Design the sequence.
């Protein structure tokens, strides 16, 4: 692997379950480099969402460090945005939600509300209450809000889970655009074809542990790990 | 029964003759109660947001205290404020005793617990929905307070009405700190008390009817606003 | 945020201009004088002549005196001579002046079941009520009227507090409220004449006994002592007091009539 500046360094990260006697997350060493689209995959309950939430800071671990080395001195960029699996919005219209986030993050390079709505194809929904949008529209809006914060790091949790094919296409397109523009994107998905389309490196998690972190091409063809091959074949891993 | 009939007739006569004394008294009642309501809201709503969002030890005790203060007897509040603003009291230098300002202060103390208690409950509900959003997008505190208040507008109207009702209908506090002075601190409720003590029961009742009528109008207007806002928020 | 607060303060000040402009005279007085309409009559006349605004707070005598002791008054007009003298002796007031008088009357149901109308004295009247055990309503609030009433029971050598809650009921309220209750229960009570004449809910009550020297009701006026109360409005209250005691003021008091009946008799000399 080519040595890049590691953007995110995770060491000895433990999260213990309150109810059962096991580790929800047990990662001794994991790094994400400065630019690329990293995809996190794994069976249900592996801890993918938990890992994203830990990186974002929504949850605190029991022990361990998550170190983030921003290169840029730009204060605006020193943020992590997350697009949650279940999106939440203000009790306002699509347009008002976007305006709210844009105002929080006033920046010279930021687009106008109209530009954002156009990019995510939400103009005809602009006066509809965000909570009344369809599943796909909600995911587009959720991504729009996350991107409007202008953060360097973008965490996406199943961004096209509820999406119709058009929305899936649109969202993937935008993800690629953002990556090219210099954003670091970490994406959790169940969708193996999507991972193949988007991922540059893949992190495979099973039962809270990282089984493999590998360049995409090697991951999908030459994985030596039994569980991964089972997963890629579509079998259930126990 | 005759008394009631006479009272209704008196009430209508007073209103349709644009009785100057009546309008002066009604005007003062509304000015005082609305002013204390506005001040109580400016102070109380942000406190409500704060209590709803933050967690600190003693929080639930504080909320319980505000809840129980809602039931504070107006006459006790009046007595306490009187002792504060009496010329021999700590705030005597303000010279607001027997002026509408003391009445506003007393009603402020009466309404504030209502505003804080009820709005905390409203904001707690909203917080369940908004908590993650506000953490993820790192919304600063001042903006959070404004947003919570703005997005709860319809429920807050109900709280306004509760506070207004409490203020405009009480007599115990305003009569002690206001002194029921003609043209200066005489409001609807203290006039009713005065006319009753003069034995003019039909007039007292007529004023009571007018007071109810005004409350009714205000409630209707407020509810209309609430429905309109509700349509905006919930479609 | 600051400009918003400033605007709010400005608005509040404009809404209530009258309480900011000028110094007024603050008078603590009794419900009996206020309810009779006396102040509504005399204060506008005084204002007309001098331009001075007098604000009246009417509460029970006990509360009026207490308020004045707290310096929440510039001048005190009540009708409880011994309390007034104590007020001056304790340094709260400058000097006690006789202002005006009227009398108390004993009211009761027109049928007069205790037969007090033939009594030779106020004590005898109360004695008849006591013997009959007929309902009597008392102010019970340490007002001038209440103190006079207690005095009369003492002179009749009746331990009246023993009967409190039975046929003797203490309302702890002003004259008007007490009259309302008396009228409702068709009972006996002691009232000052002025409040009674102007009272509008008389129902079946009538004056059944009057005229005893012991029913004499003297009102006194006292200026609050500026040494104890530095914030008091000495100048204008002095003008007010002197006016009340002057020939002009006393004649004005004499002219106050309700239904053709004079309510107060000036006796400043």
Sequence:
């Amino acid at each position: 692997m080519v040595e890049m500046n590691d953007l995110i360094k995770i060491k000895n990260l433990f999260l213990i379950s309150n109810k059962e006697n096991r580790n929800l997350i047990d990662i001794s060493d994991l790094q994400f480099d400065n630019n690329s689209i990293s995809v996190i995959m794994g069976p249900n309950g592996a801890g993918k969402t938990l890992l994203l939430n830990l990186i974002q800071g929504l949850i605190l671990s029991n022990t361990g460090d998550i170190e983030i080395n921003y290169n840029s001195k730009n204060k605006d960029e020193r943020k992590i945005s997350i697009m949650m699996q279940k999106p939440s919005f203000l009790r306002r219209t699509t347009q008002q939600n976007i305006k709210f986030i844009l105002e929080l993050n006033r920046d010279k390079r930021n687009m106008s509300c109209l530009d954002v709505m156009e990019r995510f194809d939400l103009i005809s929904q602009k006066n509809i209450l965000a909570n009344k949008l369809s599943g796909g529209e909600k995911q587009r809006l959720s991504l729009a809000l996350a991107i409007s914060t202008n953060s360097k790091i973008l965490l996406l949790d199943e961004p096209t889970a509820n999406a119709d094919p058009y929305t899936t296409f649109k969202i993937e397109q935008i993800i690629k655009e953002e990556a090219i523009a210099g954003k670091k994107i970490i994406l959790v998905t169940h969708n193996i074809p999507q991972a193949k389309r988007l991922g540059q490196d893949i992190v495979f998690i099973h039962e809270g542990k990282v089984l493999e972190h590998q360049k995409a091409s090697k991951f999908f063809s030459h994985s030596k790990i039994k569980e991964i091959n089972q997963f890629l074949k579509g079998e259930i891993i126990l | 029964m005759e008394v009631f009939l006479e009272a209704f007739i008196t009430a209508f006569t007073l209103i349709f003759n644009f009785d100057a004394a009546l309008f002066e008294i009604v005007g003062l009642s509304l000015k005082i109660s609305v002013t204390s309501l506005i001040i109580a809201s400016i102070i109380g709503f942000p406190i409500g947001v704060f209590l709803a969002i933050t967690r600190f030890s003693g929080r639930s005790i504080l909320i319980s205290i505000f809840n129980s203060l809602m039931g504070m007897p107006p006459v006790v509040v009046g007595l306490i404020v009187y002792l504060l603003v009496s010329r021999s009291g700590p705030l005597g230098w303000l010279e607001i005793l027997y002026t509408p300002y003391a009445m506003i202060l007393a009603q402020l103390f009466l309404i504030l617990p209502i505003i804080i208690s009820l709005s905390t409950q409203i904001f707690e509900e909203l917080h369940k929905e908004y908590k993650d959003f506000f953490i993820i997008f790192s919304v600063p505190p001042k903006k959070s307070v404004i947003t919570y208040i703005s997005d709860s507008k319809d429920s807050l109207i109900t709280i306004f009405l509760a506070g207004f009702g409490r203020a405009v209908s009480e007599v115990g506090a305003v009569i002690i700190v206001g002194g029921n002075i003609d043209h200066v601190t005489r409001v609807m409720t203290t006039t009713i008390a005065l006319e009753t003590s003069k034995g003019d029961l039909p007039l007292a009742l007529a004023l009571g009817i007018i007071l109810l009528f005004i409350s009714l109008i205000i409630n209707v207007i407020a509810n209309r606003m609430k429905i309109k806002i509700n349509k905006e928020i919930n479609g | 945020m600051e400009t918003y607060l400033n605007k709010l303060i400005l608005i509040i000040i404009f809404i209530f201009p009258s309480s900011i402009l000028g110094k007024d005279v603050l008078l603590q007085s009794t419900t009996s004088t206020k309810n009779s309409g006396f102040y509504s009559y005399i204060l506008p006349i005084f204002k007309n002549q001098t331009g001075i605004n007098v604000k009246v707070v009417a509460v029970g005598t006990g509360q009026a005196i207490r308020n004045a002791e707290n310096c929440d008054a510039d001048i005190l007009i009540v009708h409880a001579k011994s309390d007034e003298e104590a007020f001056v002796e304790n340094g709260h007031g400058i000097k006690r002046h006789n202002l005006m008088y009227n009398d108390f009357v004993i009211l009761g149901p027109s049928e007069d079941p205790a037969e007090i109308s033939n009594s030779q004295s106020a004590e005898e009247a109360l004695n008849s009520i006591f013997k009959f055990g007929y309902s009597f309503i008392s102010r019970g609030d340490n007002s001038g009227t209440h103190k006079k009433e207690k005095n009369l029971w003492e002179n009749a050598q009746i331990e009246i507090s023993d009967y409190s809650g039975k046929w003797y009921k203490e309302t702890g309220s002003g004259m008007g409220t007490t009259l309302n209750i008396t009228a409702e229960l068709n009972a006996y009570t002691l009232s000052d004449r002025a409040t009674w004449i102007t009272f509008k809910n008389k129902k079946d009550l009538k004056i059944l006994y009057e005229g005893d020297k012991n029913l004499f009701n003297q009102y006194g006026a006292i200026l609050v002592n500026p040494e104890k109360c530095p914030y008091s409005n000495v100048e204008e209250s002095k003008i007010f007091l002197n006016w009340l005691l002057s020939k002009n003021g006393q004649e004005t008091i004499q002219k106050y009539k309700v239904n053709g009946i004079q309510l107060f008799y000036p006796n400043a000399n």
Chain A touches chain B through 19 residues (CB under 8 Å). The helical segments of chain A are 48-56, 94-104, 113-119, 135-148, 165-180, 192-198, 216-222, 226-233. Chain A is about 35% helix and 25% strand.
